[in-house]
Amino acid sequence: MALMSVEEAIGLVTAEVSALGTEDVPVAAAAGRVLARDLLARRTQPPADMSAMDGYAVRGADIAETPARLAVIGESAAGRPFAGPVGLGEAVRIFTGAVVPEGADTVVIQENTARDGAIVTTTAPTATLRNVRLKGCDFTAGTPGLVAGRRLTGRDIMLAAAMDHPTLPVARRPRVALMQTGDELVLPGQGTGKDSEIVVSNAFGLAALARRAGAEVTDLGLIGDDLAAIRARVAHALSGAFDLVVSSGGASVGDHDLMGPALRAEGVDLSVHKIALRPGKPLMFGSRGGVRVLGLPGNPVSSHVCAMVFLVPLVRALQGDAAPGPLAAPARLAVDVPANDARRDFMRARLERHADGSARVTPFASQDSAMLSVLAAADCLLIRPPFAPAGKAGDPCEIIPFDD
Ligand SMILES: Nc1nc2c(c(=O)[nH]1)N[C@H]1C(S)=C(S)[C@@H](COP(=O)(O)OP(=O)(O)OC[C@H]3O[C@@H](n4cnc5c(N)ncnc54)[C@H](O)[C@@H]3O)O[C@H]1N2
Ligand code: MOO
User: Residue 358 half-sphere exposure, CB side, CA atoms within 13 Å?
Assistant: First the structure.
């Protein structure tokens, strides 16, 4: 079987994928969710010309000369505006966030004034319009503040709230089911101490990645290498309660690699690929009805790297995310690296800040696809493209940072 490129495989997995549906959530709960519709401002901000400082609201022309003596005729505080206009030779005591009264166009900060009873005298010049936030300088009613497909940050929901949205329309969370196969697998703390046992790890990482990408995750547990048992669990996973079924293990070509046969037997239109990627060559992808199925390799590091490359973008695409990733970032090599072969390499690596400010990346000496101690110690994946020539320390490169 010819190797499929990583780009082609990502295209295959995310092709014709769109958001599953929309729900309204309180703005306070919307960070991390994907915005389903463009969000228009429901008000103008600031709603009027507002003072940016504590001081005196004046007519700029009145204070062209310093000192200028003005009669203080009232006060404008945040939430308690001054009712009347400011006339020639007059000033209004004003505080930060207060409406600038009609007639005034400038705020003199109190540090640049001297107050004597009802008279205020300027002690330094202030340019006209200084210290005033003009009406609508942030946003105006009816203009789009946030665009559909955006994964909302804490900063975005601040803007949404200020635009007067108590709830936000977001993509519903994809419901993801996880399955792990292998006769050797036992849950943490539940082994009998036999050397042939392996304590499961994959689903913990897959669940963490999928949840961070916005999914609602259900772990359907361990399944032995038994076709009937795998088929029964697959049938349950495909029964309509989930949008995406993710398996780990049994994806390769061994006699006990039964996930593919079980998925096919349950009517999944499945394609099995060898991807030009390391770690994690075997990958299965298919669907039955509206339910998608992603079969990841069993080796723990491979399952995690493949999840970063395929599962996370798929979960994001299922929410209409305009940038489903995976998103690479620029860095520089901290050490020399050898030429690469045909498989795109995602090397477990560590980042350090170089004296010149650039991020310098060092791959770990061991890149075994079963070594979780190395995966946990890494803080990024160094991407080595297919057939990349040998690289020298200082050469530009690309990484995918771990953001969890
Ligand atoms: N003749 C060939 N053999 C293999 C090939 C190949 O192309 N030809 N590919 C290798 C590659 S690459 C990988 S990756 C593995 C993937 O195989 P499977 O997806 O079938 O995975 P398993 O055989 O079930 O398990 C592999 C390994 O990982 C451990 N494992 C499995 N599930 C879990 C889990 N949930 N938590 C922790 N560890 C798990 C399992 O015990 C095995 O040690 O195939 C190669 N072979
Ligand atoms: O997919 Mo494998 O990770 O090269 O062991």
Answer: 16
Q: What is the pTM of this model?
A: 0.91
Ligand 2 centroid–CA 307 distance in Å is 13
CB 244 within 8 A of CB 310: no
Domain ranges for the chain, please list them. Answer: 6-20+172-317, 22-45+138-171, 50-133, 329-401
Pick the residue whose CA is nearest to atom 2 on ligand 2. Answer: 280
* Closest residue to atom 43 of ligand 1, CA basis: 299
The answer to whether the CB of 247 is under 6 A from ligand 1 is no
Element (H, E) at 207: helix 202-212
Q: What is the mean pLDDT of residues 86-104?
A: 98
Q: Is the CB of 180 under 6 A from ligand 1?
A: yes
54 lines ligand 1 (CB under 6 A): no
Fold of the domain spanning 22-45+138-171: Molybdopterin biosynthesis moea protein, domain 2 (3.90.105)
Q: Rounded to the nearest 5 degrees, what angle is found at the Cα of 279, between the Cα atoms of 277 and 282?
A: 70
CATH architecture of the domain covering 50-133: Beta Complex (2.170)
Ligand 1 centre and the CA of 298: distance in Å? Answer: 4
Q: Do domains 50-133 and 329-401 have the same CATH topology?
A: no
Return the closest-CA partner of residue 314 out of 391, 371, 241, 243. Answer: 243
- Ligand 2 atom closest to 370 (CA): 5
Question: Closest ligand to 297 CA?
Answer: 1
Complex ipTM > 0.90: yes
Quickly tell me which residue has 């045909």 as its tokens: 342
Fold of 6-20+172-317: Molybdenum Cofactor Biosythetic Enzyme; Chain A (3.40.980)
CB of residue 246 inside a 6 A radius of ligand 1: no
DSSP state of 309: I
- What pLDDT sits at residue 55? 98
pLDDT digits (tens, 9 = 90+) for 138-150: 999 999 999 999 9
- pLDDT tens digits, 264-279: 999 999 988 899 999 9
CATH of domain 329-401: 2.40.340.10
- CB of 273 within 8 A of CB of 238? no
